Amino acid sequence: MDLERQRRKEEIQKAFLTQLVCNLLDEGNAAFREGDFRQATYHYSEGVSVARYAQAEALVIPPELLESLYVNRAAAYHNSGEYEKGVQDCDSALAVCEGSRRALYRKALCLRDLGRLREAYECGTSCLLTDPHDRQVSELAQELAAKLGLKIRKAYVSPQNGPAGSNLSLLSRNPLAATHEFRQACPACYSRIGNAAESNALPHRCKRDVLLCRLKNSDDPTWKRVRPRPARNNFLGAFVLCKEVQERQECKYGENCTFAYCQEEIDVWTQERKGALSRELLFDPLGSTERRALSVTRLLQLHMGMFMFLCEECYDSKPRIISKRSKENLAVCSNLTARHPFDDNKCLVHVVRSANVRYSKVRPLHPLCQFDVCRHEVRYGCQREDSCSFAHSVIELKCWVLQQDTGITHEEIVQESKRHWHSGSGRNRGLNLKMKFVCGQCWRDGLVSEPDKALKYCTAKARHSWTKERRVLLVKSFEKKKWVVVRPLPFSRSYPQQYDMCVHVMKQKKCHYIGNCSFAHSLEERDVWTYMKNNNLRDMQQMYDMWLTLTNQNHRPDGTLVTPPPEEKQIVMPTDYAEPMSGYHCRLCGKHSNSERQWQQHISSEKHKDRVFSCEGEDEGLAWRHRFPGPRFTLCPRLEGSCPEGASCDYAHSEEELAEWQERRDFLRRKLAKARDDMLIAPNDYDFGKYNFLLQD
């Protein structure tokens, strides 16, 4: 028999057997409706036997048909009082179709009549999760809960079935609306007087991160600040007022006090603990107007942060591990011990960095999603985790709504977030700040001294040398009246995604980090660093020059330049700082000596040599336009591709860089020879540290 005839024969057998199973199922259903449960069981059993025969002959029977046979036979067994057989058929149906609502419901009925109430309750609740609106399943679950002595609750059904329903969720309904008034503010628009808050009418860009509340029809018209509820999940008692506040004293615990500062705080905290009130949804109930304006950019403007992909396996582990896509191998995550396939395990996460880093997972939208925030997650954390049908954060709820309305995917959300992040600060927009360079030594002494016209010394009486390392950049916003120091950009091979505020500065007003802290110590410093990152600026002088250009302040009123012209460069050697008349004085180091021996020791010191060859003490000197020279004065052989060593490569990366290296090396050698002839450098001194390969033959 050829293959074509064999295929036709198999199709005939499959169609015949499938039709036979359907006929037996219909006969069983007819007998069941007539109340003849034994005859119905017989027809269902015949259908199961035919289906098993077809499977033995490698013929596929639709799983939905086989599930119906098992579930209907379980119903016939239940009505006949054969509950054990009914449970077995329900298990068979669940093996064919996992999570079948009909099989779970029939199994719960059989287990209930067998007296196995706990197992029946678990099946009923599992069935209720698949369809929360099923009245029969809900009644069965409440009946079993009553028999088990559990607390009976009404089914928590969202008031909306998708976008067509009501746009208000349960948590956005204010239970204190009849007795309390609410408004939003920020630390810049109110001033604290005891425990009261008064509105400040100064124009500003309000962040709306502070909740204010007051009682209606009260004699006290002031707005009270409501602090975040203390994160103590094991506390079940009533909230009470702080004793220090009751005695009109300042609480020594401040923001960390777990007692309330006012009655309004007690009322709000109580409702939040019950899960009946959410601050984020209080002023943003996702109404029709808000939904029409909802977009990824709008979400990031309201909630800050950004969207990114993380490894879901690492994120859901205990303890949580934050791992992105590996830079060395893009197919796996950055977790060195696990190395999960990233594309198969990635999940969308919303990241917000403030005083700490907060991650909010955004699960994919599916038909069973309920458009409301999980009340358990709001109170003490949802135990069902990813299997919960309700949103676990406001940002996840809004992402679901955005996906439902626009059909946007998670990949598109991440791409929109990246575009918003790169254009958020504005690459071509200027900073709303004033800037100036001042002498760092005078600034530490409490003085503000700018450079002279020649840009050589500061204008103070001490006449400190005006060098790149001795000056500091001060900025002042138009909203404030205080100059703030901006440190140089933290050294790194690549820019971070964003610059964050230092936690120690925010809490203790002072950073105790010994090294160079890479976190911003002021809002102005963070804005300047972000602007430099967006405009690819590495040096503070470049930042200052750009600001001068944007504000048209390149010249002083007398016509002199604010910054020296780039072509006026000179090489500085120790001879330029030597003053043999009436002793020896080094302008670079500020050291004066009347003894020749001490002077020789000074010019031979590592500190003096390093300052000389790094050109401290002059405006330009040896300020390289390119990298510091390496020992290899040739072009990099890997220049055509991408050199993996980057800035640490010993070879030059361009013709201009190589020419500058050679020019500076030859010039320094001539200067060094002249200095030795003048006996201003010890004749037997050949140790110049990192400059040895430049100065020695």
UniProtKB/TrEMBL annotation:
The keyword Nucleotide-binding does not apply. SMART domains: TPR, ZnF_C3H1. GO terms for biological process: miRNA processing. It comes from the Eukaryota. A zinc finger (C3H1-type) spans 373-395, 496-524, 630-656. Residues 651-678 form a coiled coil. Residues 373-395, 496-524, 630-656 form the C3H1-type domain. Signal peptide: none annotated. Keywords: Coiled coil, Metal-binding, Zinc, Zinc-finger. GO terms for molecular function: miRNA binding; zinc ion binding. PROSITE patterns: ZF_C3H1. This is Zinc finger CCCH-type containing 7B.
